[in-house]
Sequence to fold (769 residues):
Amino acid sequence: MSTVLERRTVRIPPALVTALVFLLLWQVFTMWGPLAGTSVPTATTTVVTFVRLLGDSATYSALGQTLLMAVVGFVIAVVLAIPVGILVGLSRFAFLSSKFTMDFFKVIPPIVIIPVTILVFGPTIRMGIFLVAFAIVFALAIQTAYGVRDADVVLLETMRCYRLGIVKQIRYARLPSAAPFIAVGIRISASAALVVAVVAGLIGGAPGLGRAILLSQAGGLSDVTFALVLLLGLLGIVVSRTVTWIQNRTIFWANR
Amino acid sequence: MSTEISIEHVSMEFRTPEEVKHVLDDVSYSVTPGHFVSIVGPSGVGKTTLLRILTGLTQPTSGHVAVDGVPVKGSPAGLAVVLQDYTRSLMPWLTVEKNISLPLLNEKLSKAEIKERIGASLEEVGLSGVERSYPWQLSGGMQQRVSIARALAVRPRLLIMDEPFASVDAQTRFDLEDLVLKVKDDFGITTLMVTHDIDEAVYLSDEIVVLYGKPAKVRDVVPVDVGASRSQIETRNSQRFADLRTHVYAMVRGLE
Amino acid sequence: MRITKRLLAVLIGAWLPIALVAWWWSTSADSTNPYFPPLATIWERFIELWFSDQFLINVVPSLRNLAIGYALGCLIGIVGGALVGSSPKATAYLEPFIDFQRSIPAVATVPVFIVLFGLDFEMRIAAITFAATMPILISTIQGVRDTNLVQLETAQVFHLTRSQILWRVRLPAAMPLVFSGLQLGLQIAFVVTIASEYLGAGFGIGAFTLIAADSFLILDAWTGVILMGLLGYVINIVFDATERISLRWYIGQQKLS
Fold:
């Protein structure tokens, strides 16, 4: 009898245990511990606010604006970066010429240029789109160029021996070699796009979830701040899982 | 400085959810102190499993192993090993001298003593002057010499080698074989070696243990009576050598 | 031969940035657009501002915060990651939780730290440390967890203790992966340093630049942006050089294979 019972006990996933312990500690700290009576919200208040936000249409319009900036900026960057990356990768001279410049812009975080974008665009959706595109385009272009240059030399020489023209070389050697590089670049860029769209709102005042956090913090609504940050964490996981899921189904060779 | 090893009724099973794999069945054997013993057998017969049991890395399902009458629990004291995979068993971030001194960490030795041991060990294997090099800067044969020097630095009473010369070229292999014979003459260390090269086993050993069957049993123990001093040309060309090789080969292939 | 080849590569890499700056300089020379002042004027202001005690007042505190926060993040990330990664149980309990923490954009955690610590020094250090810790922690856990079995068993046979195996075998073996976490951590720490100034009390290079932009001090905003860009780039170069020296063994080994 007891063995049957034992078999039926569901094994609790360790991650869930950790999450529950964390929530419990948070609750204890904010109700009776050193953080009691401060502006730090309790775990329960935060969860209640989180649920309330999920039922609030304003949350969805903010979410929509953030996603709009992320998606449009992402698409612009991809449309620019991939052709440029391919062209640059085809020529050794072009690659060496632009490598330093692209590396320079690649490592400059977009947050740095926000003051100038505020001047030029003001706190608008367009500013968010620009920042997202700026954040991604250089890294993606350089990644694409690396992929094109990584093509198999033996394969290329074989093709040349058979007098296959440059178009066929690109089609059958360069692009297949660049594809996995591009896939990795796109996966990283998608997550970065979301982050930058949030930062554009939080620092630059562009509309969306970022601005919602900024306003809640400035207005002293700390439970809303915490709940929105929680929402962003979940959103980040959803985005990275979705991109991985799409890639696994569309370009299966990307994971070779 | 030599050691007696006894293997008594050792059996080994690996359990996976799908099946139980019976690898070793009632293996018993005693190694005479100071002897060089090779373990041979067909691929996948369980030679390496038996070595792992001797080093204390794996526990047998039943039976036991004792070194100088002391049952093996964890790695026995005075043991040194040389593995086939020198590229992994030497730590690539440590120089040759640091690699050799790694096993000396817990022996209470002064800096001068450690330096002395490193120098002596490298000299024994004919590799003086590479103390400051990294292992990956050396050829495969030299790396395996470093691995042997590291084993000697602990002044072992028992040396265990798992296909030590499998990944080096033929010429280097002969040199390393003669090096091992020299080490044996100099220190009289009891040595156990797994090999799939029957010529090598005959050339080096005082005794050869043949494992055969599924699960593996000791098929035969062959004393190698080709004289105490060996030479690559004379020993390998003697009639007795040829007879022994044929005999062991036939057993390994299941022909006898 | 090799040196001239490298020199050639540098020369080829240099013409485009030089051309870009020259193009900016000449096209902006008689610019009337208030938002895009002539580069010559920006440069004048740049020298006036940042080659003066303004550098000590605005830039040095930012760099100091970054250094303190990043150092703490490295310490917590590497030591914590090594301890967690060497225990499969701890990894199972903590890794998904840390993964979740990391999926929150680091800049978005700054308001949380403001609620917890207020607007000043402690908040900045806490936010920078937290941001730097996460990627370092995760890459260290992965690196230490996946130590090569041959190396582990070799260490075991030679009677190294558990802690010797952790600090002398597992952690050094994990260093190539740890360094990728260190680099990401540094980049994020830099971003959060600036964000904590944008959002916190108004001092530091980030606050200076944002306030300049909000007050339509366009020249000052441009010089701030350029300085922050250069700082970001220099920090990356310093990191790359450190990595090349620390991972000499790894790079050398990779080159051979």
Chains B and A do not touch (no CB pair under 8 Å). The radius of gyration of chain B is 18 Å. Chain B has a mean pLDDT of 85. Chain B has two domains: 31-59+74-78+158-256, 85-155.
